[in-house]
Amino acid sequence: MPTTHLPSLQQIENAARTVYREFQATPQYRWGLSSQRLGTDCWIKHENHTPVGAFKIRGGLTYFEALARRGELPAEVVSATRGNHGQSIGWAARAHGVACTIVVPLGNSLEKNAAMRALGVTLIEHGEDFQESREFARALAAKRGAHMVPSFHADLLSGVATYWWEFMLAVPQLDVVYVPIGQGSGACAAVAAKRALGRSLRIVGVVSAHATTYADSMAAGRVVEAPVTTQLADGMACRIADEAALAILLPHLERIVQVTDHEVAQAMRDLYADTHNIAEGAGAASFAAAMQERASLKGQVVGTTLCGGNVDTGTLAGVLAGD
Asked: Where do the structural domains in the chain lie, given as residue ranges?
């Protein structure tokens, strides 16, 4: 498997300085109702409070900072996304005066699409799922001579790690954290922050029960493709695990929990009732997994992440109504 070096504490601290030029550290709260519901202390990290409503912006900022530092800023970048990565790249590209084209699957979130266009992104809809969009984006970048921004890369990881670094510094008593897995940057960033800070907390990965490539790949010890049928957790709708991310996660995740769309929808309702924050499907998956395992969590300090709040209005209305 390819090797991606985890960022050191110094690299994460340097990345934080880059991130904080755009926004300050996001909050984390011990919500009383959520703790009551879980039956133990529950802390929630609010990455829905970034300027793009999700954690991904941190990685985009550090990725472009690294390009600029090396004198490698291109005229144009191309990438693929279900929405939050695209907003991250769009934001950072705009800040550096770089043209940005993003490919999304057909039928992608209308409001995420609109948010990307508002950042100056040229949006192309192509493919039935993220994997097809990514393959098209790679071919498009090669044809145009543009720079292809991957979904997983060391320069993205250093930025994403700043949010777990913030969380672990703010709540040093954490015993276990639940981390949603899409392409793997969030989970690998949790590993990086844990190692950089020398913490002993446990990291539990969370995948959609309807997009199991990382669960299947962890079990097999190699990348295993799996179909994607989730209708709600688009941020975890990955068909093929990233090999470099898998290599990091294999020795460091305690286990993986699979959550159904039904469990994710219930977690979205619970988070809204308890905190009056809006969670997209992937943003609620962490809490959904903790709730699934709540019987074994008594007496522990649990960390969950509301890693994104970008859900279409109609979808949210249906979920809150119990549809």
From this structure: 9-55+154-320, 57-148
